[in-house]
Automatic annotation (TrEMBL):
This is protein-serine/threonine phosphatase. Its cofactor is Mn(2+); Mg(2+). Gene3D superfamilies: PPM-type phosphatase domain. It catalyses: O-phospho-L-seryl-[protein] + H2O = L-seryl-[protein] + phosphate; O-phospho-L-threonyl-[protein] + H2O = L-threonyl-[protein] + phosphate. GO terms for molecular function: metal ion binding; protein serine/threonine phosphatase activity. Keywords: Hydrolase, Magnesium, Manganese, Metal-binding, Protein phosphatase. It comes from the Eukaryota. The keyword Magnesium applies. Residues 1-230 form the PPM-type phosphatase domain. InterPro entries: PP2C, PPM-type-like_dom_sf, PPM-type_phosphatase-like_dom. It comes from Liquidambar formosana (Formosan gum).
Amino acid sequence: MLQSLFMSKDTELGLFAIYDGHLGDSVPAYLQKNLFPNILKDEEFWTDPNRSISKAYERTDQAILSHSPDLGRGGSTAVTAILINGRKLWVANVGDSRAVLSRRGQAIQMSTDHEPNTERGSIENRGGFVSNMPGDVARVNGQLAVSRAFGDKNLKSHLRSDPDVQSADVDSDTDLLILASDGLWKVMSNQEAVDIARKTKDPVKSAKQLVAEALERDSKDDISCIVVRLKG
């Protein structure tokens, strides 16, 4: 999980991300150090953010795979948000961590949940399969519960790492952004999360309240959450 601010003479960037790893934390740690730098060092980011973000995701995944002897065989989902001068928001994701924007109190999902059943065709075209065992979620090759991820070298030939990228203008009607891992979204709708987060202006307290509510609802998965207050 990362929350930071980059400032230059002409530009203020808010950088926010959730990295939800599986089979260890080495891949999330690598992402935290490298993904945003890979995005921002590309000069094309300032003219075509969508393309630049997509290229950086793919380039970072290739680097993770090339370092697999050190990083291990695990992987990670990711949802990232870049806020430019408090006015333009770019969100990208692979996997099932999610970004939800609040506009006039209405929840707007800014990411795409990459679930095996919804991308079955892509998985099967790559030679893989999707299992649907009773009492369990759908899994790629009976193992991974997402269809896109960083790393996961043993499954990579059947997975994708290209992100879905969305943008939004931030105005006076846009009050907050929630980034969270699937442990939150499995027990809470987008609108419920927005309603809880809007109850307090302190984003740290809002995030803690969301996590507490997910635990109260008996979430069985790990929960990471960031709430970003937007000035509009």
